[in-house]
């Protein structure tokens, strides 16, 4: 049985990401209805490379990762952009396991979710790192009922660089053996779950 801890305080004041340690629970994030791939995708060549990985469903860079360290690194990259909008990122850490994943792909999935929140959310972004998952929420309005079923659908124009953020993020997560899901739509809750490290098993190139 698990219980949900109190949500981190919501503050409108700018500031650096906050680290909290806590017990079991969950947190949430707002969505983007039409976003670019995350803020760290610099050019079309990099986007094409990510799409190739998503199509083939394979990567040769999978390695053992400390999920908390990776999340802290990604949050630091977004700190100033949230502060400029007088918003804060709060990271809560429960008990975690190391995961087997590709740092660049996992980082990009997190970038998409943070970009979504920056562009379409409100207030403090609450991130929970627990077990082998990362769950993200903010104080945005959530996902409209008529968008839930198609939220992760690919854009009809495969050449379009816009409107494919969440679709790409899900495909990248799946290419690493993980999953990205909307676990609650009002308020919106996104959860990225990755593969735990199995002792004695080495990643397959």
Describe the protein:
- The protein has 205 residues and is of the alpha+beta class.
- It has one domain: 2-Layer Sandwich (Heat Shock Protein 90).
- The protein is 29% helix and 22% strand.
- It contains 4 helices and 9 strands.
- It has helices spanning 44-56, 67-84, 103-120, 165-175, and strands at residues 18-21, 63-65, 89-96, 99-101, 125-131, 133-137, 179-185, 188-193, 195-196.
- The strands form 2 sheets. It has a 6-stranded mixed sheet. A 3-stranded antiparallel sheet has the order 2-4-9.
- Helix 1 (44-56) packs across helix 4.
- The longest helix has 18 residues, at 67-84.
- It starts with 17 loop residues before the first strand and ends in a 9-residue tail after the last strand.
Descriptive keywords:
6-stranded mixed β-sheet, alpha+beta, disordered N terminus, 3-stranded antiparallel β-sheet, 205 residues, Heat Shock Protein 90
Summarize this structure briefly.
The protein has a 6-stranded mixed β-sheet. 29% of the residues lie in helices and 22% in strands.
Summarize the helices and strands and which ones pair or pack.
Blueprint: E1 18-21, H1 44-56, E2 63-65, H2 67-84, E3 89-96, E4 99-101, H3 103-120, E5 125-131, E6 133-137, H4 165-175, E7 179-185, E8 188-193, E9 195-196
Parallel strand pairs: 1-3, 3-5
Antiparallel strand pairs: 2-4, 4-9, 5-6, 6-8, 7-8
Helix pairs in contact: 1-4, 2-3, 3-4
């Amino acid at each position: 049985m698990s219980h949900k801890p109190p949500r981190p305080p919501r503050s409108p004041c700018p500031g650096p990401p906050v680290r909290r340690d806590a017990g079991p629970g969950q947190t949430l994030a707002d969505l983007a209805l039409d976003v670019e791939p995350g803020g760290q995708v610099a050019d079309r060549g990099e986007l094409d490379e990510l799409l190739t990985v998503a199509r083939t469903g394979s990567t040769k860079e999978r390695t053992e990762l400390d999920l908390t360290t990776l999340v802290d690194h990604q949050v630091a990259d977004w700190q100033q952009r949230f502060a400029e909008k007088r918003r804060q990122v709060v990271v809560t850490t429960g008990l975690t396991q190391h995961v087997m994943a590709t740092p660049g792909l996992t980082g990009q999935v997190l970038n998409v979710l943070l970009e979504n929140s920056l562009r379409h959310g409100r207030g403090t972004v609450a991130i929970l790192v627990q077990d082998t998952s990362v769950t993200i929420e903010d104080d945005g309005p959530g996902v409209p009922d008529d968008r839930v079923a198609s939220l992760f659908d690919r854009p009809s124009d495969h050449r379009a660089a816009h409107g494919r953020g969440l679709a790409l993020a899900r495909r990248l997560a799946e290419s690493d053996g993980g999953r990205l899901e909307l676990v609650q739509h009002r308020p919106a809750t996104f959860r990225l779950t990755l593969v735990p490290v199995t002792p004695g098993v080495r990643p397959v190139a």
